[in-house]
């Protein structure tokens, strides 16, 4: 019986959809060519093994790439460009949809903004009374394990843009998204402060490495 040759990533994507591609195939689709003595599929597999995951690959610094034989600045720039394009895609998406009707968009957006940070960053998405995004900003930055948050500053910014609701988000550089007691306490203080000014706290998203916790989904808000 004749053995059918495997589909190339592009043909497989056109036939079965982009989600059918493995990480290696998706990476090969972007890289397009291999290096001397190494085809693009072998290169993709070796890169993923070396950096541990797509996340590790797309967030690696140039110095780490220089330790991989046959990989130069061009490949580093290409992969960094892919990561930045993804980040901007999510940034654009959250501006164009209702994050309450599409909670995955808001979650993916804050993950794209915060997951790579080496310090704790606290950001807020401000919504109007139709739940459309007015603006988003990083209000507070801290250390590896702590960020000082001032609820009054959040309320002040919300009033400035005439926001009716807010979505809170911060990251855990450790990679574990499980909220601490301090996270719960500060959320409670923010909710009380916002309620006084008739501003809804819709959710608080804690972002880790490839994981998240939603206070709303847990029933804590």
From TrEMBL:
Q: Where is the MPN domain?
A: 99-221
Q: Which GO terms describe its molecular function?
A: metal ion binding; metallopeptidase activity
**InterPro entries in the cross-refs:** MPN (IPR037518), RadC_JAB (IPR025657), RuvA_2-like (IPR010994), UPF0758 (IPR001405), UPF0758_CS (IPR020891), UPF0758_N (IPR046778), UPF0758_YicR (IPR022820)
Coiled-coil ranges per UniProt: none
Give the matching Gene3D superfamilies. Answer: 5' to 3' exonuclease, C-terminal subdomain (1.10.150.20), Cytidine Deaminase, domain 2 (3.40.140.10)
| One Pfam family here | RadC
Which biological processes are named by the entry's GO terms?
proteolysis
> Is Metal-binding one of the keywords?
yes
Its keywords, alphabetically, are:
Hydrolase, Metal-binding, Metalloprotease, Protease, Zinc
Is Metal-binding set as a keyword in this record?
yes
Q: What PANTHER family does the annotation carry?
A: DNA REPAIR PROTEIN RADC (PTHR30471), UPF0758 PROTEIN YEES-RELATED (PTHR30471:SF3)
The UniProt similarity line reads: Belongs to the UPF0758 family. YicR subfamily.
Q: What is this protein called?
A: UPF0758 protein M8013_06240
Look up and give the organism this protein is from: Silvania confinis
